Every structure is written in structure tokens, then in C-alpha cells.
Amino acid sequence: MNLAILVGGLILSLVVAGRSAVTVRRGALVALLGLALGAPLLTPNPLTLAAVAIAGAAAVGWNIIGGFTGYAAFGQAAFFGLGGYTMAVLVARSTGSYGLPAGLALPLAGLVPALIAALIGLVVLRLRGHYFAIATLGVGIAVRELVNNVDCVGLPSLSRPLFCLGAAGGIILPPLRRSEVAATNLTFYFAALGLLAGGTLALALLHRSKFGYGLRAIRANEEAAAVMGIQTTRFKVLAFAAGAALTGLAGGLQVLINGSVLPDQSSIFDPYRSLEVILICLIGGVGTVWGPLIGALVLYAVQEALTGLLGSGDWRPVFFGAFVILLILFLPRGLQQFTTGGGRPTWRILWRNLTANRV
Amino acid sequence: MSLQVVVNGLLLGGMLGLVGLGFSLVWGILNIVNLAHSALIMGGAYLTFYLFDRLQLDPFLSLPISMAVLFAAGYALQAGVINWVMRAPLLVTFVLTFGFETLFTSLARVLFTGDGRAVTPAYNAAALLVGDTVINVMKLGAFGVALALTAGLGAFMRYTRTGNAIRAVGMDADAARLMGIDVARIYALTYALSAMVAGAAGSLLAMWYSFTPDSFGIYNIRAFAVVVLGGLGSVPGALLGGVVFGLLDQTIASATIGGFQLGALKEALIFLALVAVLVVRPNGLLGKEGYR
Amino acid sequence: MTLGEPLLRVTDATRFYGGVAAVAGVSFAVQPGEILGLIGPNGAGKTTLVNLISGLASPSRGQIAFQGRSLAGLPAHAIGRAGIARTFQVVRPFQGLTVRENVAVGAMYGRGGAARTAAQAFAHADGVLALVDLAARAADPAESLPIAGRKRLELAKALAMDPTLLLLDEALAGLRGSEIDEAMALIRRIHATGVTILIIEHVMKVIQGLCSRVVVLDYGRKIADGAPAVVMADPAVIQAYLGQRYARAHGLLPTPDAAHD
Prior knowledge:
By secondary structure, chain A is mainly α. Chain A has helices at 2-17, 22-42, 46-68, 77-91, 102-124, 129-149, 178-208, 210-220, 222-227, 232-258, 272-284, 291-310, 315-330, 336-339, 347-355, and strands spanning 152-153, 163-164, 171-172, 260-261.
């Protein structure tokens, strides 16, 4: 059933993002919203759908810096994890935590990664291309290691620590009462949905705003953008921070759903998040408004189908890797190559994509 | 910094230099930052492990085997896949090699499990004693092999016809093509050489540390750092960069500040060092045009 | 800025790359409202000079003042906002954006851009597109234009910034016969709106046809500065740049036969 919802949503999104008449696209959008709002009625477990929305929202964050601005970050998982840890520290009730209500903590789960990204960005965004990509890869590794190894941080003058990250033990959030669980799953789903919808809306506004055009000019040719009056450094840092904020919010929400943060295992700092957000945008179209949504739906629909065939488990990263390779070879502009006038999907076009850049 | 730390750092440095050399070859000639490099290293390590574990083949003796296998694998990878996207923008090849790294590492996890592996021949505890300093003989041997391979590759690049063809392609692929050089084949050959060297590094590193499929990801960062510091296109530079980072690695691993083990933050600190180099001296210490 | 003050004053501008001085001690002024030509052989330092003025490089020595204020230390975007716009020798259209969007970026971020909304910037862009005769291609992707169109787009992007001073770096390179005449007419129209222009060109017809004054560079140094006819008769310029044959053909140097009379 989940698969049907995902595929249905995918078809509708492709129509919305495509080139049909405006009335058709509006109709599809309404249908899509209806599907999204009604999905909990159709599926026994809205949390699996919430995971799709969270992945999509995290990818929206990457799209801002990697897609619009053209600075492909390879360590976005760091901000996902930072958002998660911020949420954990604020919501938990152990030492070094603050016991705040989740609603209050969520915005901060976006703010903290944004601030950290701004600081890191001032250094790292001076680098271009390969260098920037590797630097962000390193950021991902370094942040994970730091958080894994830090227990409590405090000032000598304070009696209690500023915050505790729990080092290898992580942080456990207060458990939910059984009666709350069903209602809460629904809340989580709608929160995730809201995040993805809000993120997509933000991309749409960005796409038409002066700031958005500035970012796209930077992506196209940074020197030319600079001489035309665009403050490239400021814009890049803002984009990096905004992207981190959105990805961080997604991470914060994920932690609420998980009920804990544990640094190791397939955790909040799972490095595959870094690849996942890139993969999602690749599928849906890097630098497009609907790309993250389309990409998330495709990715999770395929995973859903494969789980049916292969069962869950270790094959997920194998699949990611293979998928990325095939995608970058045959469909580097993603599915939207077809929706934006690139022709109808044929083997011929795939072949042409492959051979267009050969040695 | 005690003499022990220096010795360990130098020995490790030779290995890191070899890691950097292979990485630098593909980056300098093909202009690809090859994130699959760590996976190739992993290939060498597991191959050596299984040859030792199943066939009792001494790791030094099985080195040519792992080098040959990785050479072939690298050639196939470049000729069969990467050559298709050579003219694509940077992000494309970056993501492609990233995809390969993910694919190979996760396959390894499925096939070889996450259990720690180590290559432990009978002589692995043998050591020379110089004063208080312990020099592990096996590691010393590995260091020697790494040096020999580095020198060998450098000589190959400089003195053989094929080596010169590779350097020519690295300087100007179109001009090389006009002079009759089969660029596609040279690319495949270069990548194969890089894979071979990576495989050798992996085989040697297998004698150093115990490892799981996830142990190798950091070698991309290490390789990048070594090459950036030493300068792209320089063989002695790779060695120099390797030694510096080897010393840095060992110094951090054994240091404590105010009771806090710095070693726990080793990756973060090495990364910081990398960023510092990138910002302050992006051309490295010995970087030059072309390959020397 | 007081009356009679030059719009741009370059004093002893010098720029080293490694041990080589790409620009060495160049001084000249650009008066408001003039069209100044900048010529010289390849490698003479013309583009470097334009990079210094537009802020993509900073001078190793010397000053550059615009409207009486020094440009020292200002980043390229600040100089763009201050009213200096430039085109690139190898054109740089923003791929992924339409022709109209390309031009609108100039209107959003150039002089006066801060006060404009996106919609106002697009309206301004439409006006510029009409001026350069690209209105018909407004909705097309920038990459789809042929070379002549790309040159006009490059010009339009700079124009949309409402510059006081426009630096054209070989904007006409690669154009043929009638295209050159059209381009020259366009530059005259732009000039008529009050823009001061500094134009780097190799095509002599353009320099002679448009410029009231010409500055000549050779190996980074200024070797002449004056009216086109005067400059082109200067033996130093002829030697360095025009070549003996051109000068002879246009009667600027005595032919060997005539000299033996």
C-alpha cells in the first residue's frame, strides 16, 4: 500500500513539475496535497511515510547549497546529526539536557546547525570544486568523531554542564506513554510532511527571488556574478547555513521519532545520509524546485519494492551505490530531463546521455 | 615527541606516501578525485588477508598477486565505466567514484562481514631494539616495500616511453591525442597503475592494523591531505606529505592534554590540518605543473 | 566629483604575476562621456588592466580612483555596484538561466539594483533587451544563442547594471562585416544614453570609428595616448602593434620607393 501511495505521489509530482497546461498542473497539485493529507488513512504505519518526507526535507537542504549554488557538499549528514543532537539535548531530561517541549526545541534544531555551518562555511566556501567537496567530506567525518567522543561540556564557573552529548552512550529521550503513541505517529507524519512541503515552498520562492537568482548566477559563473554586484561570499554562506538549517530540522524530527540518539550503529550521523541527499536530488533534478520531492518518492518507492523482494538489511547501501552509478551514467539530469522538454523517455536518450561525455 | 613516536610516524608515513601517490596519479593525469581509492586499498587488504588465511600465503609474497588483481580491476573500471564520463563536469566523476566507494564497501560488508581482520604471520612480533625504541620488523619491511614502489613508479613515469606518454596526456590530452597517443588506453593504464599501488598499500596496511570494511574510508581524506601538502604532480612530494601526516598521526595518537586523550579526536584534528593547508598553501610544498 | 575631474583616474597601476609585470606603471584618465580606446598587441596587459579596474585583481602598486574615490581594497561586487560594469573577452552567459533572466541579474545587483524588486529588475531588463535587439530571444536559454547573440547578451548584462563606466573587453571579436557595423551602431546608441565607455579592440575600423581618444599598451607599459590618427602615426605604436606593412599600406609610413625619390 505504501508503494502505491509513493508511486501515485510520484506521478502527480511529475505532472506538477512538468509542462502541461496550468490547470492540469494545479489539479495535480491539489490531488497531491489530498493524497498527502489522506495517506494516514490508507496506510497502517504513517511513520514509514514520515521517513520519506524527512529524507526529502533533508535533500531540500542540500539542494540549496549543492543544487542552486553549485557547491556540492558531501558531508550533509553532519548537519542532519547536529540537528538531531540539538533536539536530543533540548528535549531530554538527563544531566546536561533541558527538558523543553519538542515544539519549542524544533526551531533550535534548525538554528544550531545553521550557525555551525555559517562558521565552517566562512572557511570552507573559499574552496572550489573538488576541494570544497573533500572539505565537506572531512567536515562530515570530523563532526561525527567529535560528537562521538565528547561527553559533557561546561564552564568552570557553572555547577551544571552546558550540555552533555553522552559520548558513546548517546542520549535517550523521555519515553511516550502508550496511549499517546498512535496520535503521536500521526503528529510526526504531519510534521514531516509540513517540513517537506514548507521546504518545497521555500525552494519555489527562492527560485523566483533576487537571492535565488544570485545563487544561480554564482553557480553558473562565480567571477561574472561577482563583477555584476553579487556579494558572493555572503550569499554562499547564507545558502550553506540555510541548507544546514533545513537538513538539521529534518534530523531533529528524526530523533523525536527514534526516541534517542546513539552515535554509532546506523544512527543519526549515518554517513549514507550524505549520499542519500545527493542521490535524491540527482534523481529528481539537481537545482530544481520539485527535485527533492520527486527524488525522495522514487528512491523510497524503489526501496519499498526491493524490500518486498530482498527483505530488509545490509543491501541498502549496496543498492544506493549501484543506483548512484547508474543514475550518473545514464540520467545525470534526473527524471526532470523528461518533464522539462528533454524528450520522451527512451533507451536512445539514455544512451545519448552515456556517450555524450566520453573520453 | 619521543623517538618512538618519530619512528612510528616515519614508518606510517612511507605507507601514507604510497596511498597518496596512487591518488595523485589519477588526480594529476585524469583530473579525477578518485573516492574509490579507499575501496581499492580495501581490496588489496582483504585479498592479502584471505590469501594468508586460506592458503597460508605470506603477505609479502602474495603482494604481487594483489597488485596484479587490483591492476586488472582498475583497468576494467576505467576502461569500462569511467572513460564514459571523462568530459563531464567535476561533480559527475566525483559522484561516480563516490558511488563506487559506497558500492564496494557495502558489498565487502555483506561478503566479509564487519568482523575485524588482521594479517598476523609468525614474525609479526619480531622487533629491533634501538635503545628504548622498538622498531617492528614487519612494519619496517612494509615501509621498505612502500619506498621501493614509490621510487619504482617515479622512475617508470620519468624514464619509460609509456610513463612519458602518461605525463603527456596529463599535461594536454588533446595534444597527446594529436601525436598519436591512445588517450583512452592511457587513462585506463593510469587508473590501473593507481589501483595497483592502492592495492599494494592495502596489502601492506593489512599487516599494520586490524581492519573492517569501514576502516578504509578515511584513506580518501588522508590521500587528499598528503597530496595537497606534498603538491599535486610530485612523486617526492607525495612521500614528503606522507611523512608529515604520518608524524602528525602518531603524535596525536599518543598525546594527552590535561588528561584528555587527543587520539580520540584524531580524524577531526587531521582534517583541521588539511583545511589549514588548503587555505594557507593550496599548491603544497613541492607542487609543480605536470608530473615530476 | 568636481567639474573637469576625470571619471576614472589610473595612476601608476602595476600588477605582478610571479616575476612578470603584466601591467607596469600605467597612468591615464577617462573623461566623463568619452569613448576611450585601449589597444595593444596580445599579452600587452589590456585585460589585466580591466581586471584591476573591475576589481578581479588588485594592483601591486598604484591607485585607481573612480569619481574621485579610491577603489583600493574594494571587492569586485562593490565596484560593480558603484557603477563600473565590464564584459568578458570569452563571454560568460549564465547557463541554466534564460536570456531575460541573465540580463535581469544585472538589473538586480548593479547600480540601483538594491532598490529594485525582482519584478522591477525584469522590467528594466526588458528595456535593455530591446536596446540590444534580443527581445525576440528573451525566453530562450542563454546557451542557445549563436556567437553574435552571446556577444549582445554579454553587453546587455553589463548594461542592465546601469553603469556610469562600461568596460568592453573585445566585445566585437569574432564578428563579421555587417555584424561589426551593427555592433558599432549599438555602442553609439549606448553612448548616447550617457554611459562613458572604455573599449578594448583589435579591429581598427571600430577604434577609428568610435573613439575620440586611444591609449596604447605594449608589454604592460603605456606607449601612446591621444587621438586615433595621432596615435596610429606614432612610430612606436606602429612598430609594436600595427606592423610596418599596415602602416605603409595606409600611407602612415613612407614606402621604400617613395623614400628613394
